[in-house]
């Protein structure tokens, strides 16, 4: 069912570092650009599904069926994004297309943050200084603590 040589080179710290950045991007786009306030679980679910692409890249990157798996996963992600965030809005066709494009940009932001983490850990930034992996994990943890605290509703 699974072959060890299918494994890719993605590391967990990269995913973790990119997650709060991608989540905040999603909030910014939907609350500020589209002026749409969805339930928080929808943003969290989209971020979780986007982040779970790590499973494909880490465990199946060199599998002979990777391309089909990745394309299928992308379609599922876009459908979920549409169903949860776009369809409930009374958007024009043009605004729906822009909203679908925001899913692609969300993916790019996520991947970009992961790439920055990898480059910092590998010493390809900051004049060759290698940033320890645990700092990315710690940063992501603290970022989510701050996100959660800032999104609390005042007690009534």
If you had to describe this structure to a student in words, what would you say it looks like?
By secondary structure, this protein is mainly α. The protein has one domain. It is built from six helices and no strands. It has helices spanning 12-33, 40-51, 53-59, 66-86, 93-122, 133-150. Helix 1 (12-33) runs antiparallel to helix 5 (93-122). The model has no long low-confidence stretch (mean pLDDT 94).
SSE layout:
Layout: H1 12-33, H2 40-51, H3 53-59, H4 66-86, H5 93-122, H6 133-150
Q: How many strand elements?
A: 0
DSSP strand (E) fraction? under 5%
Q: Tell me, what's the shape?
A: globular
Total of helices = 6
Question: What is the element string, with H for helices and E for strands?
Answer: HHHHHH
Mean pLDDT: 94
Characterize this entry briefly.
This protein has helices at residues 12-33, 40-51, 53-59, 66-86, 93-122, 133-150.
List keywords for this structure.
156 residues, 6 helices, mainly alpha
């Amino acid at each position: 069912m699974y072959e060890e040589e299918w494994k890719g080179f993605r590391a967990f710290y990269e995913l973790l570092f990119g997650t709060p950045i991608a989540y905040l991007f999603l909030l910014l786009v939907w609350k500020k650009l589209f002026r749409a306030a969805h339930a928080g679980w929808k943003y969290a679910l989209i971020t979780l599904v986007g982040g779970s692409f790590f499973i494909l890249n880490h465990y199946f990157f060199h599998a002979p069926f990777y391309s089909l798996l990745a394309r299928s996963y992308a379609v599922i992600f876009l459908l979920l994004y549409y169903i949860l965030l776009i369809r409930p809005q009374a958007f024009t066709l043009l605004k729906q297309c822009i909203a679908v494009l925001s899913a692609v940009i969300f993916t790019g932001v996520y991947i970009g943050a992961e790439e920055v983490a990898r480059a910092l850990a590998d010493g390809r930034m900051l004049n060759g200084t290698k940033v320890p992996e645990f700092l990315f994990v710690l940063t992501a943890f603290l970022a989510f603590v701050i996100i959660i605290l800032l999104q609390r509703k005042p007690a009534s």
